Amino acid sequence: MMDSVSGLDLLASAILILDRDGIIVYVNPAAEDLFESSSKVLLSQHLKQVFPNSDVLEPLCEQVVSHDRVEVRQELVLERVGRPALHVHCIVKPVDLPEASVLIELRENIAQIRQERENRLVDQTQANRELVRNLAHEIKNPLGGIRGAAQLLEMELPGRELKDLREYTQVIVRETERLQKLVDRLLVPHRRPHIETGINIHEVCERVRSLILAEHPKGLKISRDYDLSIPEITGDKEQLIQAVLNIAQNAANVLTDRIRQEDAELIFKTRVSRQVTLARVRYRLALNLHIIDNGPGIPADLIEKIFNPLVSGTEGGSGLGLTLSQTLIQQHGGIIECESVPGHTEFLIRLPLVRA
């Protein structure tokens, strides 16, 4: 049979061929990549051993065999053991080979995967926002009492002990003030935005660029790749600057080694995408702002958590910058996504432009 199907090895789509008992007798390299499993593991397995919910696929196979259908097409979600489910466009065809009866072609549905990931981010950010807001208010009230008590204690200290003990009361005051600033940062996204029209996204990028370069005047190059045809947007300009600045500052912080080597680079790139769904709303046009760095990348165990509060990939980080950025962008009807490999981390800010 291998000679008959050798051309399938070159296809980008995942191909499975089954015998009449539903046993896999052939997989192409694209299928090995999609299922993250070798042909040695997949061959001779029954379809239901690979997909626990194979009952959604088996009827399609029966249709092409028993009813002599040319092919059957359907969008499916195929579950896998120990791995995320696959969203695929499935094509099932009969084959006339001695050891095989059905060919299954699977193409991963990237749009569906992206939409589900965006929905998860929106729901997660909303839950985080409520958690952070409630936590901040619970912390804020006792802080004022602690600071006031420390100041009163200092005033009551006898003169001969004031010099020795004032150091400790000042530590309490300073630390409560530091926590107060942290709490204020947590509450920033909950203030009412100052909406204005005619915001040029490139002015936002240039403002952030100047702030980052002022902090890192040597060793860091910030490149721009702007689409100047992008229309102006509506929103809170200061909040947009803060959202972009948080991401750029995070990137600069992880570029420390490359800055010392004087080969650190940040890229601001803007593009327009068409027919986009953001926060479950369809838009004819959307703005894409890419913030790219050539740093070490985000560890795989953190990539799904980086927008959670108090999760930081840098030593000494508060873990609030990306959480606040995601919240601010979602308040503008957008979303922030991230992809990262060593040497290339890309944050994508997507903002609505024209409603469908």
Summarize the structure.
This protein is an alpha+beta fold and 356 residues long. 43% of the residues lie in helices and 29% in strands.
Describe the protein in words.
It is a single chain. By secondary structure, this protein is of the alpha+beta class. The chain has helices at 2-5, 29-35, 39-42, 47-50, 58-66, 110-156, 159-187, 201-215, 237-254, 256-261, 321-331; strands at residues 14-18, 24-27, 72-80, 83-97, 100-108, 196-199, 220-225, 233-235, 264-278, 281-293, 335-341, 344-355. A five-stranded antiparallel beta sheet has the order 2-1-5-4-3, sandwiched between helices. The chain has a five-stranded mixed beta sheet with strand order 7-9-10-12-11, with helices on both faces. Strands 6-8 form a two-stranded antiparallel ribbon. The longest helix has 47 residues, at 110-156. It is elongated, with a radius of gyration of 28 Å. The two termini are 50 Å apart. The mean pLDDT is 81.
Topology, please?
Blueprint: H1 2-5, E1 14-18, E2 24-27, H2 29-35, H3 39-42, H4 47-50, H5 58-66, E3 72-80, E4 83-97, E5 100-108, H6 110-156, H7 159-187, E6 196-199, H8 201-215, E7 220-225, E8 233-235, H9 237-254, H10 256-261, E9 264-278, E10 281-293, H11 321-331, E11 335-341, E12 344-355
Parallel strand pairs: 7-9
Antiparallel strand pairs: 1-2, 1-5, 3-4, 4-5, 6-8, 9-10, 10-12, 11-12
